[in-house]
Amino acid sequence: MDDSAPGRFFASEQTALVGPSPLAAKPLRIQPPRVQQDCGDIPFVIRRDGTWMYRGSPIGRKELVCLFASVLKRDADGSFVLETPAERGRIEVEDSPFIAVELDWTGQGRGQKLSFRTNVDQIVTAGPENPIRVAHDPRTDEPTPYILVRPGAGRFGLEARINRAVYYELVALAEPEWVGNRHLLGVWSSGIFFPLGDVPPDEA
Predict the structure, then answer these.
(1) What confidence tens digit (pLDDT) does each residue in 69-86 have?
(2) How many CB atoms lie within 10 A of CB 133?
(3) How distant, in Å, are the alpha carbons of 129, 164, 172 from that of 114?
(4) How far apart are CA 60 and CA 58, in angstroms?
(5) What secondary structure letter does DSSP report for 94?
(6) What pTM, to 2 d.p., does this model score?
(7) Distance (Å, rounded) from C-alpha 174 to C-alpha 193?
(8) Are 64 and 25 in contact (CB under 8 A)?
(9) Disulfide engineering: 78 pairs with which of 12, 27, 67, 156, CB 3.0-4.6 Å?
């Protein structure tokens, strides 16, 4: 594969950005199905801040980033791949492939719905199929929240890390609930309670 430019990877998908070929008006010939080509590791990296890099340089066109994001998948072993019917290749992701950059909510209490906009303009509503989870740094115990954007081939999915500003909005919406024997602060969305952390002892 000639990977000298990101646009040459998945060239058929790039047609959606530049328009149909002038040859499209000619009669189509039926061709046998193409065998999917495994390109191995390809020089894409998604930085922790959500920047897509190709050979060490950022991809500046958001339309192209959104196009690649639409064909991003996750294998059962947790690896990230760009995949079309014709080609697939593994890429590096430093943390999560997406960032949740905006929050909108409707309703309140158990009837509340929380919707997040990602950095590739996908809207995800937290609920049974799109849970929120909070990971904690083992050294500092600092929380890092995520929301599942779409499932992967196995137990690993494609997540968006909820940025700090949006996380503070979630904390402002948080309510205390007892879950088993733990008194937790969390948020409701689509009938599901998502814990954010323990209720501070002085507020219990």
Answers:
(1) 999 999 999 999 999 999
(2) 13
(3) 13, 16, 13
(4) 6
(5) S
(6) 0.83
(7) 10
(8) no
(9) 156
